[in-house]
Amino acid sequence: MEDSNGEDLKETPELPLEIIVYILSFLHASDRKEASLVCRRWYNASQDLRFQKNLIFSFPASASSLVLVRGLARMPRCSLKISQLDGFSISRSLLLEVGLCLGAKVDSLALPGSSITEASLLTLLPCLTSLRRLDVRGLDSLFMSGAFLSREEHRRQ
């Protein structure tokens, strides 16, 4: 390549993604956000999993959420907020997928605006082996009968 004066220009080699991630690791989140605007490679580096902490993935129960859950399987840890769960097959499939794909990776689970069955919840909970927080506010239907976790085997589970 030549510049306007006819002198040879040497192209600078691209930094490996790992080096960019290393450089970004010294920055605060706000500065990483600004650095991600430099170019596509810097943006991709800013999305490295080591920078993804305390994220809550919030989504409604739907067929497209099944794909999202499968995609979250690459995350080392995650927190979920799943709304609009009900007793129908798509909700049951979604909870099954969460248990299978993310079981040991879920730190916290919130189920706002849901009306899931006791059986669905009791099927999911044993799969969530790393669960530290369960938000069941708004799941009034589970507690209305007064029989939630009334069986000994459910309490042990």
TrEMBL record:
InterPro entries referenced in this protein's UniProt entry, alphabetically: F-box-like_dom_sf, F-box_dom, LRR_dom_sf
Pfam families the record matches: F-box-like (PF12937)
Domain of life assignment: Eukaryota
SUPFAM superfamilies the record matches: F-box domain
Residue ranges occupied by any F-box domain in the UniProt entry: 9-55
UniProt organism field: Xenotaenia resolanae
Protein name per its UniProtKB record: F-box domain-containing protein
